Amino acid sequence: MSALLDALEADDQNNGRRSLDTLRFRLKPLREAFGQDRARDVTAARITEYVRDRLAVKKARATVNRELAALRRAFALAIDQERLSAVPRVRLMADNNARQGFVTPADFERIVAELPEYLRDVARFGYLTGWRRREVITLEWSGVDLDGQRLTLRRERSKNGQPRTVPFVGSLGEIIARRHAIRGECRYVFHRNGRPIRDFRGSWDNACEAAGKPGLLFHDLRRSAVRNLVSAGVDQSVAMRITGHKTVSVFQRYRIVADDDVRPRWHGRTWRSRR
Question: 105-261: which CATH number, 1.10.10.10, 3.30.70.890, 1.25.10.10, 1.10.443.10?
Fold first, then answer.
């Protein structure tokens, strides 16, 4: 099994997948549980035991499902590479705990006020475009067209492997103008005193706690952006191009509907949705 998991990691590395670090994180508990076993000894029953053990230590279903997905990929790759002729079926659990996090404009501004100065435009950009954290902090000036009022995320920086072009919509132009004024020699649009921004989860968590929104993830800004774009009447295909969603089904999962969105209002003789 250790060789199968190594092969999966090597396949992601050879294909330049940006999720390699995440994969390594997912493989760690799999290596601990199955690494010393022969692949043919890992049965569906053993996998069920693994799931039970992970849930017993309070791991979320979504977390365990991602680990199972990695295990399933390892077995599928083993078939493709003719390492195995048969593999166990790896079933994912029903996950009814998908995140529904989003933040209203008022709450978002309170969070921004608690962030360090160098992170405020990072958050504003993420809230406006719905780009993923790494996509935001790796945006380079080579992808910004000031004359054409648009920016481009290169293929190698995009999680879905597709380039993305976004016009300067809303306050995006103001964000880019502020960043350009302090550009300096750094090639990145968002930086900290000329140095690339790395992990800022601690600063983000502290700001959310101080703003009364503990537990909110930076990724929840992606859900917020989808909700805001839809609420603003932006065509779904255009919104998907901005956020980088490849499929309608995934986009719809990010489309969070709040109570105020569906609470009706009285219009003369009839009720109408606030949407």
Answer: 1.10.443.10
